[in-house]
Each structure stands twice: as C-alpha cells, then as structure tokens.
Design a protein that fits this description.
Rossmann fold; globular; about 45% helix; about 10% strand
Length: about 300
C-alpha cells in the first residue's frame, strides 16, 4: 500500500496570493487537486479541460465548500497544439502571475490514433500538449522566481513508464499510430509518453534551475482512466493492485504535496511516489538516460517552434 501518511488539511500551507493552473482540472485527480488547494486560500486557480459542464460542477463544489478562492475555467484540448497555444495566450492575457503549474491531464492505454497535428495520440496529448503549455507559461514562472517566489512545475508521470518500448522513445515513428507492437501496444505507447513526462521534468530542472520541476506517480487510482479501459485491461489493473487502489482524493495527495511542500523537501528534477517519497531507485537505465532527455528536449523544441 502506498505511504499515505499525509493529511492535506493540515500539511498544505497557506497559499494566500498564489495563482495555480491545473490541466485536466475538470474531473478526476485534477478536480480533487483543485478542491484540496482551494481550501488553503489560493488567490486564483485556473482549471483547463474540454468540458465546460464538468468545470461548472467542480467550481460549484469548491464554492459550496466555503472557499473564497477564485476559480476560472479555460478550455483546452491537449491533443491540439493550436488549442494549447490559445490556452496559454488566454491565460497570459488574464493574469501576470503564475506560481504553480500542475500538468495533471492525460490519457491512458488509448487505441491507435493520431492527434490533430498528426502525432501518436498518447505521446501528443501527455507530452507534447503539456510541453507547449509549459513553453507558453515559462516566462510567468521565471518572473515569479525573479521576484523571490517559489515557482513550480509538477508533471504527472506513472510507474507505467516502465512499459516503454525498447530504446524508450521511438522518435522516427512519433508521427504514426505506432500500431506495430506484437503485444500490449496501447500500454507500450502509454509507457513511452509517461517516460517522456519524467525525462522532460528532469530536463526542465536542468535548464531552468530557478523553477522547481518534478515528476510524480499518483499511485493507481480509481478514476475514469481505469474505469474506461476494456474489460480485460480493467480486470488486470484491479487484480494486480488489490489493496493498493486509491480513491481520487487520495490520488491527488502526491501532486498537491509536490506543489506545496517546503522547497527544502523537494529535489529539483526528481521523481516521487506517494506521498513525497523519492522513487529514483525504481528507474531503469533508460529513464536515467540524460542524453535521451536532452534529445527529447531538442526534438520537442523543434516540433513546437512554429507555435
């Protein structure tokens, strides 16, 4: 069972004045993170997603909790780089401050498909969409750092990154559906995207030391990502995680910990499992490959150059 000796009610500090952006904040772990953080006086929480009605429900729930935190929904489809570009520009036009960026949204074990821009859908959504949003919002985060703030980028990865294909990231096939794996293709593609999340967080930490960047595994959580799987995949997840399955509110603990714990408690570029426990020891050679991280960074910047 994950170490859940963590109480967000008492361990999240006062967040007065802080502005927070949460991708996928309209349901699941993103919504639960918004709910936890709104209880601690954040000035403004922005939540993004594709469903305005779901956002309204999250906002209403936070209102009913008695929180005075301002909540704003910004529509964003991470599988469309033009949509992400618009999201970043909309956010920057509404505020000059950003303290915490929670890259929470994602898809898991999806059937073979392409994003709007022609990239493998899991890699395009989980990595590329977030990378563009980070690019758009980096100036605001750097500004907070120069003002003496404690800006953070927290990226959700998963222990599922260990399912990545041989070599880690198959760069020459990222503009295909990558439906050529003999077994478990959807999970191989998922692992590839989650490996990218971890590598990118580490490279961000190296290139932008004034911003604390980290990747986190939320645990195995009973959300729509699990419930929407095909029967056999869903059964496999439940059978292999007996006694380990977390409720959505618990699944958010690790990311709200990483977003708000004292700076001295979190290592820039590190990978954490629930809650706040370094999981570097679990990583294989590919996930520790700094040359692969640098290659991913350069490939990503080239792709995002026109945006």
């Amino acid at each position: 069972m994950p170490n859940l000796n963590y109480n967000p009610e008492t361990e999240i500090p006062d967040l007065s004045g802080k502005t927070i952006f949460i991708t996928g904040g309209t349901n699941g772990l993103g919504a639960e993170s918004a709910f936890h953080l709104a209880k601690h006086n954040a000035a403004h929480i922005y939540i993004s997603g594709r469903n305005a009605k779901s956002a309204d429900k999250v906002i209403q729930r936070i209102r009913e909790s008695g929180s005075s935190t301002e909540i704003t929904f910004i529509e964003c489809d991470l599988a469309s780089l033009s949509s992400v570009k618009k999201t970043g520009e909309t956010f920057a036009s509404q505020t000059s401050r950003l303290d915490i960026l929670l890259c929470n949204a994602g898809i898991m074990a999806s059937p073979p498909s392409l994003t709007t821009d022609g990239y493998e859908v899991q890699f395009g959504t989980n990595h590329l969409g977030h990378a563009l949003l980070i690019k758009k919002l980096l100036p605001l985060l750097e500004k907070r750092g120069s003002e003496g703030g404690d800006p953070r980028i927290i990226i959700l990865t998963s222990e599922g990154l260990m399912l990545h294909p041989s070599g880690g990231i198959i760069f020459d096939k990222l503009k295909t559906v990558q439906d050529d794996f003999f077994v478990g293709g959807s999970w191989r593609r998922y692992g590839q995207s989650k490996l990218a999340n971890l590598l990118y967080a580490r490279e961000l930490a190296r290139r932008y030391p004034g911003i604390t960047s980290a990747s986190i595994h939320p645990g195995v959580v009973s959300t729509g990502l699990v419930g929407n799987q095909k029967f056999l995949d869903r059964a496999l997840i439940y059978v292999t995680t007996i006694g380990k399955m977390l409720k959505p509110e618990e699944g958010a603990y690790n990311q709200v910990w990483a977003a708000t714990t004292a700076k001295g408690n979190i290592e820039n570029g590190a990978f954490y499992e629930p809650v706040g426990k370094s999981a570097h020891y679990k990583l294989g050679k590919t996930a520790k490959d700094d040359q692969l991280a640098e290659r991913l960074w350069e490939w990503t910047q080239e792709v995002l150059g026109e945006f």
